[in-house]
């Protein structure tokens, strides 16, 4: 089974990420059983019937606004935020907003072009789950990549993982 | 100046370890070129024409003699014996070997230096007034605020992959010496009616392909809130800045598209959530950082040193140097010295390892062990006693560091250009050197007076050509190098963007073109008028006439 990172550990996970092709209308889709992240458009079309499914999450692309999910947040177990390219940094703000402004306590998963040298930033912005693309890393490489979560031990600024900046956390000598 | 505590040191040490591992994985083929690119850029490492180029951060331009000696050591050991001062007050090494860069960073970390965020689509090195703390017109010292914002922006997890680079500058004096109107965020320190410190905040300025003067987003943000306010600006930009087109990705394009009022509304709406939150600055933190920028132990001295005055009277070459390169200091008996890096035999801003060692020695002997780098690509010794100026000058002159041209035509800003930079369309250094060779008569330069000539080898505008009184921009025309000339740009409180005067020129024409421009100025100027004032008064027409001739101007007008 594929491995992902959850709360700093490797775990097995076979959640599918449903990607619609152009011919599929979200309204007409029938979902197979099993853990899955559905696109925001599918959630919008079927939220009545999908809500409450514990094995179902919603994924947003980087241009989609997390604010639109706010009315549904208490019915969603997990949200995945897509990095279409690892240089597209919008999902960092989206994750931070979900955690701090909208109080989302469920899983926030990084999907898409997810690389180990960004793990540290993802974790700081509130991602608790990290799923690199299938085949990007071997299990051994992913194990090794856990080290990147600990690149910096004492960051300066406040973020989701550390809500106080260093100048409030530590007594720094003048 | 700011000294690292164990927290600062650990972050820099951990960065060295991180980049060492990233470089190892890149060289082992585990990271692709594309994946490694932003990692190395956020560590100031470019892959250039001949070799990688490493840009080392000099936060707000301040260096200790120990740091300058380390730069000399790096230039000697890992490079070809010289370094380059950039227009963001940073230091560049042009020839390091990629596999040795982690070693260089480890060496830099031992003297509290790094290359963090000197490039890449993130918050860059924060720049400021090179005369901070010593200028007579200073209202509030910008350096503690530069350090506070440096720490906040270092590895900010939300803003490491912005749509594009992001530059912040701070000024705390009456005259702006940090080009704050041409920055993504420009901060002007000021006091409100109650005497409280805060910031006037400009946003969306910049040079580059689309030069824009920043717009005022807030007339006054109290100091406690400056981090949360900047975070609100950055978050709006990170979420809504364009990512589809590299040339339209800077915040200035977003601000233009929304209009400053709508952009301000969005920022204020965002700020509601961060304001008064944990990132609100505390008096204790500001006091802690400000405590590093204390006034040095100045002696009580007469305003005019008798020995200095007699040396000045007796030695015309010394007098010439003091006239240009020695500036007033706020403390009686002291002076600010510009150590010129504009010797015509070198590229503007270049400095050798031996010269760096000497400057470090002079800093220890004459200036409390500190050196500043300026965005105009010179070094500054900010606290020299008048009585020691002559001794310093003799040493500086012997080391070719006393070119007495500060603020004159040949004290130009010049990017590394096509000789080094892979982004460049054209070379800049040979143009600079050719103009320096043409204007080698000091009396003539003094007669021309204050003038700023800035040269960029491409649209990215590292050479600040948009704000040069005379701006030169290298352009590519069918694979050939040409140079476009603009006039009327300026930095400072009256920042303006220069206007192109007409068709561009071949490299060989450039000294003549500058001569013609200067001749028009000398013919047109009225009593005591500086070059830029004449250009503002007359407009471009007399200059176009002087450069292109009557027939060409007429023809151009007919075709227009």
UniProtKB/TrEMBL annotation, chain A:
Pfam families: DUF934 (PF06073)
UniProt protein name: DUF934 domain-containing protein
Taxon lineage: Bacteria, Pseudomonadati, Pseudomonadota, Betaproteobacteria, Rhodocyclales
InterPro entries attached to this UniProt entry: UCP030820
UniProtKB/TrEMBL annotation, chain B:
Keywords: 4Fe-4S, Heme, Iron, Iron-sulfur, Metal-binding, Oxidoreductase
Domain Nitrite/sulphite reductase 4Fe-4S, residue spans: 119-271, 413-547
Recorded GO MF terms: 4 iron, 4 sulfur cluster binding; heme binding; metal ion binding; oxidoreductase activity
UniProt xrefs under Gene3D superfamilies: 3.90.480.20, Sulfite Reductase Hemoprotein, domain 1, Sulfite Reductase Hemoprotein,Domain 2
Coiled-coil segments: none
Keyword Heme: yes
Boundaries of every Nitrite/Sulfite reductase ferredoxin-like domain copy: 53-109, 348-398
SUPFAM superfamilies associated with the record: Nitrite and sulphite reductase 4Fe-4S domain-like, Nitrite/Sulfite reductase N-terminal domain-like
InterPro entries per record: NIR_SIR_4Fe-4S, NiRdtase/SiRdtase_haem-b_fer, Nit/Sulf_reduc_fer-like_dom_sf, NO2/SO3_Rdtase_4Fe4S_dom, NO2/SO3_Rdtase_4Fe4S_sf
Name this protein carries in UniProt: Nitrite/sulfite reductase
Organism: Zoogloea oleivorans
Record lineage: Bacteria, Pseudomonadati, Pseudomonadota, Betaproteobacteria, Rhodocyclales
